[in-house]
Design brief:
Layout: E1 2-3, H1 13-25, E2 31-32, E3 37-38, H2 42-75, E4 88-91, E5 96-99, H3 101-116, H4 121-130, H5 145-153, E6 160-163, E7 166-168, E8 174-177, E9 184-187, H6 194-211
Parallel strand pairs: 1-2
Antiparallel strand pairs: 2-3, 4-5, 6-9, 7-8
C-alpha cells in the first residue's frame, strides 16, 4: 500500500500502529512517499512510529491554535459559536445578535398566553405543534412544555445573551460549569423587559410549587 504521507494513514500513532499491524498480518507492504520510508522491517516500523508521534503532536498543536484563535474571536464578539437562543439570529456581516422576526413573535405570544392569559405550557406547546410552528431545530422536532419552560426561564431575552457557561465533552454533554470570568456576554435587542421577566419567573415558580416539582433556573 502506498500513501502520500503518514497523516493519510492514521490520525494518531496508535491508529498508525494498528493499521500497520493489519497490513503486516495480510502480508501487505506499506510505503509513505513523503517520509520516503516503508514498513517492511523492524527499523522502518520504528521510524514510522516516531514520525507518526511527531505528526500527531503537530496536529494537536495546530488544532489547539485554531481553538485558541476561535475563542479569542468569540471573546471579541467577532463570531458567535453555536446557535443563538430561540428568537435570535447572528448576523455575521454586522457581527451582532439580531431578533429573528418570526421566532421573536412566537416568543412574545408564548409569554403573553402564559403570563397574561394564564394558559398552561402544555396547552401552549400542543397549540404550537398543531399550527406547525417549527422549533429552533426545525424539521419534525416538536414543542414540549419543558422546552417552553427552559426558554421562559432564560434571562437572555432581557437583552444580554450569556455563552461559554458550561464545560462539555466531545459529544456536547455538559460535564461542568465555567467561572463567571469565563462567560462571554453578547448584547441583544430585548424581547422582554426585566420587570415582566421577573413576573414570568414568579408564575413559573408558583406553577412548579403547585406541581410539587422544585424550581430550577437553567
Amino acid at each position: 500500500m502506498v500513501v502520500r504521507d503518514l497523516s493519510r494513514f492514521g490520525r494518531s500513532a496508535r491508529d498508525l500502529l494498528n493499521n500497520l499491524q493489519a497490513l503486516k498480518d495480510s502480508s501487505v507492504t506499506f510505503i509513505s512517499i513523503k517520509e520516503n520510508i516503508d514498513g517492511s522491517d523492524a527499523y522502518s516500523q520504528f521510524m514510522l512510529t516516531i514520525l507518526a508521534a511527531i505528526s500527531q503532536l503537530e496536529l494537536e498543536i495546530i488544532t489547539s491554535r485554531i481553538k485558541e484563535n476561535r475563542l479569542a474571536r468569540w471573546r471579541d464578539r467577532r463570531i458567535f459559536c453555536g446557535k443563538a437562543p430561540y428568537g435570535y439570529i447572528w448576523n455575521p456581516k454586522e457581527k451582532r445578535i439580531e431578533i429573528e422576526p418570526e421566532q421573536g413573535e412566537i416568543y412574545s405570544i408564548v409569554v403573553k398566553e402564559y403570563l397574561d392569559l394564564a394558559r398552561s405550557l402544555n396547552d401552549i406547546s400542543l397549540e404550537l405543534n398543531a399550527e406547525g410552528i417549527p422549533t429552533r431545530n426545525g424539521g419534525s422536532s416538536k414543542w414540549f412544555s419543558g422546552t417552553l419552560s427552559k426558554i421562559l426561564k432564560s434571562a437572555d431575552y432581557c437583552g444580554e445573551i450569556t455563552v461559554n457557561r458550561f464545560i462539555t465533552d466531545v459529544k456536547g454533554k455538559i460535564i461542568g460549569h465555567r467561572s463567571e470570568s469565563e462567560h462571554i456576554i453578547f448584547e441583544a435587542p430585548p424581547l422582554i423587559t426585566r420587570a415582566r421577566w421577573d413576573r414570568l419567573q414568579e408564575r413559573l415558580d408558583s406553577a412548579n410549587s403547585r406541581s410539587g416539582r422544585p424550581s430550577k433556573m437553567e
